[in-house]
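Narrative of activities, Objective 1.

The group set out to show that a structural description can be obtained from nothing but a protein's sequence at a throughput compatible with the screening campaign. Below is one input-output pair from the validation batch, recorded exactly as produced.
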Amino acid sequence: MIRIGALAAAAALGLSAAFLAPSSPAQALEEPVNAPAPERIAREGAGLKTAIFAGGCFWGVEGVFSHVKGVKSAKSGYHGGSAATAKYDRITAGGTQHAESVRITYDPYVIRYDELLRIFFSVVTDPTLKNRQGPDIGAHYRSALVPTSEEQRAVAEAYLKQMEASNVWNRPIVTRIERERTFYPAETYHQDFMAKNPDHGYIRRWDKPKVNALKAMFPRDYSARFLRDG
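Output recorded for this entry:
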């Protein structure tokens, strides 16, 4: 995503967020995809579960999951690197091994992990893009799944194989499963960013269309209320 400081400077000059976005093939309009219905159903039992998703700028990932019924919490943060460099300005400079990620807590009796995967790959992230999403480029914008249980890992592995065999995407699937490491919550101003900044240029251009796609494609799972985390 474009840095907050750059956006503030652009606003002062009357420039839009799109003006600052890097020019690249990744800037093409993202389109939702009808990802296949999972064949491997998650069976996680009773009680709230957690999972971590990385799929580009965490504003949009958090924004979509905050509109999914059964999700109880969605927190933006950093996964895959050390505590010393788990800071936005350091991570966006590159080389820290972190990914912008979202840790969600959900009720599997309302929304299963396999259903979350389908939503993720249908409206949130393009699994064929390596180290980039939308206008954002860098390893910290990689697409990755971070299971927090053996059941989640088995479901994720099965679904990635199913996606590859489905021919829904015309390029290879590059999303990877990563080992769970410490999740570092992002700075306060990143939390609930979509709800707090609905008219932000980046939100309007890149993230609201994802929520609209969620509503259209998964009406039974869509909640009009934005779940604020804390």
